[in-house]
Amino acid sequence: MEPKDQTPPGSPPVVIADKVDPPRDLRDESGRATLPDIEAFSTAPKSRDRACLVVIYGPELGKRAALGHGTFEIGRSSRADLPIDQESISRHHARITFDGDRHVIEDLGSTNGTFVNDQNLKRSPLKDGDQVKLGRSILKYMSGDNIEANYHEEIYRLMTMDALTQTHNRRYFNEALEREYQRSLRYRRALSLVLFDIDHFKKINDTYGHVAGDSVLRQLARVVKPRLRQQDVLARVGGEEFAVLLPEVEPAGALVAAEKVRRLVESARFLVDQKEFGCTVSVGTASFAAQTTSPQMLYEDADKNLYEAKRGGRNRVVGG
After folding, report:
1. Coil, helix or strand for 211?
2. Rounded distance, CA 237 to CA 126, Å?
3. Cα–chain-centroid distance for residue 131?
């Protein structure tokens, strides 16, 4: 069965201009285990203007820092109120102040800029839920009476989502793959998997920098995600590698879906620092069959086909 395309006919081509305890197995983008820092916040005053920043992508994933009425600086300097040891972060990157009514963030002439909800801004007031991107790190601003509940909700979300691309993460994907495999085994339902990887991604990083590479990943996810069915599972499973789990899709339908992804990316334009360029992906597919004995085997078959697509010249689909 071919996946349905949810984009209206004639659409123009894509142009990209229950509370839980914090988990102990959150990992940052490099795979290092991290532990949310919650003690510093537990004694903060219970006031209406109480606010904090939570690291949702980057080093010290899950860490939160309380914001008061004084000056709060973020940067690579060890003297910063929130030090972030990353080359993409300037020593004195951004400053947050309280103007008597709200917190305001101001860029301090950083090299890579300060982004609020993906907008490069020199100065901006913050509201509850805003995402602040500095270099390769993403922070979420939280404020108000429900800040404790919102923090726990965000930690729960970090267990299943990749904050950079707003797709599912590897942990969620592994659980979904196991669940759908067992369902296919029990009911003899079709199941397919698509793996795709950005071609020459290292060249993008080397040419434009890792911050630009992160931007490409975010934009690519925005291109692909809306064109999938609601029941499909899109996940970032590696640095520049994504997976799409396709329940009840036969091998022929998986090839159609894979080619659709390839064409979407090929026709998209990516904008980074006022520079527009294109990129491509190589795609491998695999489907549940009589000889499939485990979900890992299904993944490995798709991965082998992805490798064949790379070896065969890239920007192509290989199915199995």
Report:
1. helix
2. 32
3. 13
Q: Model confidence over 49-102: pLDDT tens digits?
A: 589 999 999 988 999 999 999 999 999 999 999 999 999 999 999 999 999 999
Fill in the DSSP letter of residue 312.
T
Q: Which of 106, 240, 241, 250 is catalytic?
A: 240
- Residue 156 is which amino acid? Y
Q: Contact 318/283 with Cβ under 8 angstroms?
A: yes
Which residue carries 């197995």 as its tokens?
A: 25
Query: In this structure, are residues 97 and 74 in contact, taking their beta carbons and an 8 Å threshold?
Result: no
Distance from C-alpha of 178 to C-alpha of 161, rounded to nearest angstrom: 17
Strands across the sheet containing 233-236:
161-162, 167-168, 233-236, 241-247, 191-198, 281-287, 317-318
> What's the pTM?
0.82
Containing H/E element for 304?
A: helix 295-311
Per-state percent for the chain, helix, strand, coil, to nearest 5:
30, 25, 45
Residue 87 is a catalytic residue = no
